[in-house]
Amino acid sequence: MSTRLAKGGRLIDRSQPLAFTFNGKPMRGFAGDTLAAALLGGGKSLLGRSFKYHRPRGLVASGAEEPNVLVGLGRNARFEPDQRATTTELFSGLEATSQNHWPSLEFDVGEVNNLLYKFFPAGFYYKTFMKPRWAWKHLFEPIVRQAAGLGEAPKEADVDRYEQAYAYCDVLVAGGGVAGLAAALKAGREGRRVILCEMTANWGGRAPVDGGTIEGLSPEEWVKTALQALEGMENVRIMDRTMVSGLLDHGYAIAYQRVADHTPGDGRPRHRLWRIRAGITQVATGAIERPLAFAGNDIPGVMLASAVRDYIVNWAVSPGDRVVIVTNNDDAYRTALAVLDAGLTVPAIVDARVQASGPLVQAVRARGVAVLEGRGVAKVLGRKAVKGVEICAQAGEGGAIQTVECDCVAMSGGWSPVVHLWSHSGGKLNWDETAAMFRPDATRPPTGPEGLALAAVVGAANGNLTLDAIAAEAGIAAEVEAEAPLEPVWTMPAGASDALKFKSFLDYQNDVKVSDVQLAAREGYESVEHTKRYTTLGMASDQGKLSNINGLAILSETLGQPIPATGTTTFRPPYTPISFGAIAGEARGEIFQPLRKTPMHGWHEARGVHWEPVGLWRRPYTYPKAGESHREAVNREIVNTRTNVGLLDASTLGKILVKGPDAGKFLDMMYTNMMSTLPVGKCRYGLMCSDNGFLMDDGVVVRLSEDSWLCHTTSGGADRIHGHMEDWLQCEWWDWKVYTANLTEQYAQVAVVGPKARKLLENLGGMDVSKEALPFMTYKEGTLGGFPARVFRISFSGELSYEIAVPANMGLAFWEALNAAGEELGVMPYGTEALHVMRAEKGFIMIGDETDGTVIPQDLGLGWAISKKKADYLGKRAQERKAMVDPDRWLLVGLETLDGSVLPDGVYAPAEGHNANGQRNTQGRVTSTYYSPMLNKGIAMGLVKHGPARMGEVIDFLGDKGAVIKARIVDPVFYDKEGAKADV
Amino acid sequence: MSEMILSALQGESHEGFVTVTEAGVTGMITIRADLGSAALAAALGGLGLSVPSPRGITQAGDKLLAWMSPDELLLACDYGAAPGIAESLSAALSGEHALVVVVSDARARFTISGPKADEVLMKIAPVDVATLPAGRMHRTRAAQVAAAVWRSGPDEISLVCFRSVAGYVMGLLEVSARKGGEIF
């Protein structure tokens, strides 16, 4: 059983005890503990259940590579699943719950899977759930989904705050161990801008635990001195609790700062995601110890050798009184020394090598520990806790030679450099046969846009696994015990029987065993990427930090090929999972997305408006009065506008100023009709097509002066059309003398619409707005009610209408003045739905309703707006293509149901026969459809094959559930066909 | 008349570890022209301003002139003075291919003030604030919208965005300046 030792613990402060709970039971730890250390120190070694077989699991590691102990943290709005206990700092009041078991951690029904392991081999899902096909969707998937996953999703919205930040530096150092500190010192002394990130709260990496001397100092002293020096440099920024999680193209690094995970609710943002532009990134990310693949290597109490000494030295936690060490290298002997120094016992060291003789080995032998050479562990005894090990010959099949009782097994299969950041953006690796590890190839680094290296690797991440090698690379002096070479061991024992391999775990998190990888190889999986997906080796939140090298070594062995021929799976960011909160940053709630507001937005809101999103704008859809439905409100607004006067906030309309000696020529290219001949002071409706001929925008163009035009665009199209204009000016017609300016937001614009519109403006007082002074389709500048105004006599409703632009900062005051001046006339604001209905009553098209990117102006009866005189305009030649002049194209018509009902939107008119896919042929569709309160019936527009030639014909449309709706093809102008009302 | 003129947020302000404030109405004029033209230099010279170098800012009294692109300048001035200045510049450039237009109402201006003003900008804009000198206009984005920023005083950064997104930008600034959010 694990326990807290009475003395020691370099990271804990025994004067600060912290209370927390695990599965609701109160526990205590110390400041400086990780949750893992506190749990282990509190005697908890069974801490979770495995994913597939629900096997009892405990801690394997002490850091980011921990695969097993993922817990739920917090509760309600601060609940978060799948948090690694080894990287969770303990704080007072922490609440942790174990995962993936029912009804309890100690007794889990799901463990029945463990007895059925032979029925859950690699590719189980692919093999089992194939037939019958219908059953996947209706039976298997619901059950599998229920059983899958570890933690539970939070049910409440997160109350914490998250943010992102940008930083720039010459040198980014990822990792605050000896190599990282030395690299930062060197770059800092050269005067470069340095950012040094360490993912934990502690500096120095493994050195303080593993020992040696650096520049004559103990590692702890040296780290302290180095930090002090770095803190004194203005050009160096030091960040702990910050993991460089990804190194992307062009030296763009993502770092994840856990600002307040250990102080929840203190008012600070919980996480901060850094986006760092680094000249070069020094990858100093260390190395991860590999487990050994022997039977029962997942039983709680079997841990990495380095983790065992971490728990003892850093947190004064004993994983067990009797620690058997299983190794293929000298480094693990440091664990034996740490165990002995803590006053615990090492019943045996099981060394797979035939001979073990380095200085570390000698030091351990000198303290009376039995070193069993050429031996391996046949199996671990115990179920929820280690009871002992059966020892066998490493060369054999697993026949037990002796049994050793113990509480903990410390295993070491060698070390793998953490090459993730190096590999994220394309750095290449070489297989080092002697050290049995992949290490970065300095001649093939990830490169930036100039072809230069954007990363370098130092320290253990570069394969320099010993302190003296790390120091030598950094140009400093260090001393440490020499180590003899390791002996690669991929399975233990080498000839392990099937029964043992079924219990030899490679990937703890996904319950992948040696037998699974070998089965995949036998079934023809040769690519390591395919094997990964077939067996799930190296998937999920730990991404195979412990399992990948062992797994691919066994795959290579089974395939009979060298390890480099198998290669590694792709390393992808993030290094360890980062929170969704950090990814979203500030973009949530009110500022999830920019919301564009007109100057009158608040006025509309105060009157209970119902909004319609238009691009990022919100436009009033309708202004319902108390007790009124939206439809009733829309009808009221239409009737009032057509009989009295209505006001529309048209500020969102795009307004682009185009000026210059070549502006006329330019607009003739932009629009299908002629704009260069428009007289000053006149307005003309224009159509804009893409170079493929499709109608993309429309609006009224006004000639302001000899060399300047104002182009109105759709509300959603302003930025896009401005960009489109600049694109042609900058890339194609760069020698034309034309300037544009997007004035959309400079003006608040109000449409004053209805028979009493003129009266309203006269009430306001100012410029002459009579028919004589300001006829239909003209423009004048003047003042109205004291406001500087640009008045356009244009109409989208068929009524007498003035569109009036005033400076945006006066928009609200102007809108209020119009309401006041129109009170006696019954003025009411109207929204976009009334606008839509009124334009449909007049047969005016709407971009996005009648057009969908496949419609050309000719389809819409807009031939009159296409100049026949012009040599060219954008889209002209495209519109001459065969498909565009096909007489069978669907053309715009009006539609009226025989019973006066409103046609459903978007429905199709079926035609005779079926197409090649067995679908009904069609001959038309509805593009706009409304109830017209003026006509008291449904009106619609649609595109119908040969439509205008079929006036009066009744065709069928298909509604929901096969309903057939009969509609007559009619003229699309339903209201005031002569246009008498607008031109008064 | 002046009571009719309302800036987007009417001076809304928030106190966090720095103060973020909508700075009210500001006169702004977009000038598009050949920046090397003698007529332009003369016209601006009449205002005491010289054409700034790329990304640069020149100032004269309460007037500020910023380089926006190879053929675009932004002149900031008193709100009420903008139409008159634009008119006189237009007249002075009438013989040239040039566009001078008032855009005061299309914009909102904010100030971020306090010793840690830089840290607010770091959170919303991909700008190397440590190397952002005075006298420089930086066109960038504030999270999801276009913005321009410059150092407008000791411990003060000015930010300009479009008027319609003033509320969004205020939201960004408020949350980014909230106490406890100090970076360093």
What are the defining features of this structure?
heterodimer; A: 984 residues; alpha+beta; Ubiquitin-like (UB roll); FAD/NAD(P)-binding domain; Alpha-Beta Plaits; 7-stranded mixed β-sheet; 6-stranded mixed β-sheet; 51 strands; 22% helix; B: alpha+beta; Gyrase A, domain 2; 2 domains; 6-stranded antiparallel β-sheet; 5-stranded antiparallel β-sheet; 4 helices; 21% helix
Structure characterization notes:
The complex is a heterodimer of chains A (984) and B (184). Chain A is elongated. Chain A is built from 25 helices and 51 strands. Among the domains of chain A are: 1-155, Ubiquitin-like (UB roll); 164-289 and 414-465, FAD/NAD(P)-binding domain (3-Layer(bba) Sandwich); 654-738, Aminomethyltransferase beta-barrel domains (Alpha-Beta Plaits), CATH 3.30.70.1400; 883-970, Beta Barrel (Elongation Factor Tu (Ef-tu), domain 3), CATH 2.40.30. Helix content of chain A is 22%, strand content 28%. Chain A has 984 residues and is α+β, with helices and mostly antiparallel strands. The model of chain A has no long low-confidence stretch (mean pLDDT 95). With 184 residues, chain B is an alpha+beta fold. Chain B has two domains: 2-25 and 106-176, Probable tRNA modification gtpase trme, domain 1 (Gyrase A, domain 2, 2-Layer Sandwich), CATH 3.30.1360; 27-104, Heterotetrameric sarcosine oxidase (Alpha-Beta Plaits, 2-Layer Sandwich). Chain B has four helices and eleven strands; from the N terminus they run E-E-E-H-E-E-E-H-E-E-H-E-E-E-H. The mean pLDDT of chain B is 96. In chain B, the strands form two sheets. In chain B, strands 1-2-8-11-10-9 form a six-stranded antiparallel β-sheet, with helices on one face. In chain B, strands 4-5-6-3-7 form a five-stranded antiparallel β-sheet, with helices on one face. The chains are: A alpha+beta (984), B alpha+beta (184). Chains A and B meet through strand 9, strand 15, strand 40 and helix 24 of A and strand 7, helix 3 and helix 4 of B.
